[in-house]
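Lecture 7 notes: from sequence to structure.

We start with a single chain of 129 residues. Read the sequence below before looking at the structure.
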Amino acid sequence: EEVPSQTFDNKDYFCGKETFPVYESVFTEEGETIRKIAVETEKPPQIEIHVWTIRKGILRHFYVEKVSKREFEELPYFKQITRTTLSQWKIFSEGEAQISQMCESRVCRTELEDLVKVLYLEKSEKGHC
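Now the structure, written as tokens:
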């Protein structure tokens, strides 16, 4: 018996939850690393970019900017790294706020790396959602 294929308006789903593309851009200039993590949202249709400025492993500056999809397409260096759910993005944003305070005075390389890993969805076995 054939199982009918499901289409979700070209959107990817994870355990029944809609997923959104996540992009990353990392570049170094004048001894600072600028790391940007961006997520594309449908409502409103925009890109939320989280910008970290890291100098010698210490998070020097952190801010969030929102741009239109058209503006985002013109930005250099971004590549898609994964897709994530809104709930995972919320965990990422909340963790980021904690880390930005915690890492003002000490090196936080591993904390930042671990935070980005939150966005990657575990491949689930059917029935384990």
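Strands lie at 13-14, 17-29, 32-41, 46-55, 58-67, 79-85. Keep this in mind for problem set 3.
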